[in-house]
């Protein structure tokens, strides 16, 4: 990673025009061979580069973060407008070197990038977890991923990815699809200020569970034995924590809290084929850890080996759903407000998802 100020004269490692080497590989004018595995699809049309920069609304005072500058064609345009461009590039043949997913991000006002598509989801959630929050990110994604980010309830592409992103940011597809290829779209992401007043881990535990079978009713999802077992374990742990006032025994109990949905989700998707996602399950990491496989795995283990759910606890869960008319809802059609409301209702009953 390195940064360049206006007029620093960024050295560019290669050209941007498509050429073919002797082996028929895709190369730039410098002869650099581009690697699909690194998501190296280079922007060749200067009008597209310019349009992305224009859409970003770069101010002369802005520190701009660029992910994957590649041969630097977007970078040089950003440098014309920004105070500073900090660019992070995985490929050591490109001048500025670093893995975006591993580096600690510096302060930035704006992020502008034509990203490697293979890390779209973790990259987006790394950005959204960054503090202080930036003003906006203008990102070129693969078209289908962009559509999933902006999908609304009842859209077939609506998923945990959309719900989580839209909880943390306002997301809008720019009215701009780069010609001539129609496989990319530019999305503008504006983190919400202030951030939503919700524990993201817990929110994600609930959403993950609900979208494990997004076309099933919530009643059916919450009646699953493994779900009830994991929820009851959390319920008991929270009760112990409250009883102990957060002391040493409370800390021991806290270790037992588990995130919901992962193992159930994985199995159910495999069994169900009902279009449930989420291929991005572990990517939506915010605040130092996803609803982890380990947590979900614990739930899965209990289901196979496990303890019984008390009838009283099952009744409590079902009561929250039925009293509030939620049992017949399907997550594929639920809005963010409905999820928030449901989480508040469960929490008020002492039921927790992480
Ligand atoms: C889609 S290309 C964009 C190149 C250039 N910005 C353009 O628009 O023509 C994505 C770039 O990201 C780089 N890249 C891939 N994975 C990365 C990572 N984890 N961290 C930083 N850069 C990465 C690739 O080497 C490639 O140069």
From TrEMBL:
Gene3D superfamilies: 1.10.8.480, Vaccinia Virus protein VP39
Domain (Ribosomal RNA adenine methylase transferase N-terminal) ranges: 48-193
InterPro entries given in the database record: KsgA/Erm, rRNA_Ade_Mease_Trfase_CS, rRNA_Ade_methylase_Trfase_N, rRNA_adenine_dimethylase, SAM-dependent_MTases_sf
Domain of life (superkingdom): Eukaryota
Disordered: annotated span: 1-29, 265-308
Amino acid composition bias (Acidic residues), ranges on this chain: 265-284
Keywords tagged on the record: Methyltransferase, RNA-binding, rRNA processing, S-adenosyl-L-methionine, Transferase
Keyword flag RNA-binding: yes
GO molecular function ontology, one term from the record: RNA binding
Binding site for S-adenosyl-L-methionine: 41, 43, 68, 89, 99, 114
Similarity comment: family membership: Belongs to the class I-like SAM-binding methyltransferase superfamily. rRNA adenine N(6)-methyltransferase family.
Protein name from the UniProt record: rRNA adenine N(6)-methyltransferase
Species name: Gonium pectorale (Green alga)
Lineage per the UniProt record: Eukaryota, Viridiplantae, Chlorophyta, core chlorophytes, Chlorophyceae
